[in-house]
Specification:
Order of helices and strands: EEHHEEEHEHEEH
Strand content: 25-35%
CATH class: Alpha Beta
CATH superfamily: Gcn5-related N-acetyltransferase (GNAT)
CATH architecture: 3-Layer(aba) Sandwich
Bound molecules: coenzyme A
Distance between the termini: 37 Å
Structural class: alpha+beta
Largest sheet: 8 strands, mixed
Number of domains: 1
CATH topology: Aminopeptidase
Number of helices: 5
Strand order of the largest sheet: 1-2-3-4-5-6-8-7
Radius of gyration: 16 Å
């Protein structure tokens, strides 16, 4: 078995990462239909770099990062990683990062399901209070997905991201445990 269902929601479950997934990871990270959205086009990402990244993160030795694989229930297919970084247990804050890398798998609600599943784990199991994220202003799919799970813009830094001949804005969004509980009631 490669994946183990830790949290489930809709058509996906979240599993501990499998370090053997570095080859598919490298393929997706180099997909130019997606890489602009996450500022990856400028980077050169190889099998060697992604093998090291995945081996490192899947050991779970860094207490400020918690990463899980998003797995499509149908066929137990690895879609990508949802992770929480910069975890600060005193202030109870952290930052979300998510990607569904295979282009054909976008817009099927896997992102919404994965964030809903992980928010429950972070707010209730890890007892965090505020989760934030940042997204580029032209990534409309991602912004819409975050709005669907009640993240709200709290800050915008203008023209800080250069991409395809233009300078774009960076948008910062967040949600608190209280806001999330109100929405669930
Ligand atoms: C961002 C991401 C995680 C969202 O996951 P997803 O499974 O595609 O999202 P969902 O299907 O749950 O929701 C997407 C929503 O955006 C909408 N959408 C898609 N393209 C859109 C566009 N151009 N403008 C506005 N809304 C758009 C969809 O219709 C859907 O909303 P709906 O359910 O109301 O119809 C995923 O697309 C992804 O990994 N993208 C590439 C990497 C990336 O950008 N990561 C985020 C970095 S901040």
């Amino acid at each position: 078995m490669k994946y183990f269902s830790k949290i489930t929601r809709g058509n996906i479950y979240l599993s501990p990462l499998n370090a053997e997934d570095y080859e598919i990871l490298t393929k997706w990270l180099n997909d130019d239909r997606i890489s602009d959205w996450v500022n990856n086009t400028k980077a050169i990402l190889s099998l060697t770099s992604e093998k090291a990244f995945l081996e490192n993160i899947s050991r779970n030795e860094d207490s400020t990062i918690k990463a899980l694989a998003i797995i499509k229930k149908e066929g137990d297919k690895f879609l990508w990683i949802v992770d929480l970084s910069r975890i600060n247990y005193i202030d109870q804050i952290a930052t979300l990062w998510i990607s569904i890398w295979e282009f054909e798998e976008h817009n099927k609600w896997y992102g919404t399901d994965a964030i809903n599943a992980i928010l429950l784990y972070w707010f209730h199991t890890l007892n965090l209070r505020n989760i934030d994220l940042h997204v580029y202003s032209f990534n409309e799919n991602a912004i819409r997905c975050y709005q669907k799970v009640w993240f709200k813009e709290y800050w915008r830094r203008k023209e800080t991201h250069y991409c395809n001949w233009k300078f774009r804005d960076e948008i910062y969004m967040d949600i608190t445990k209280t806001e999330r509980e109100e929405k669930n009631n």
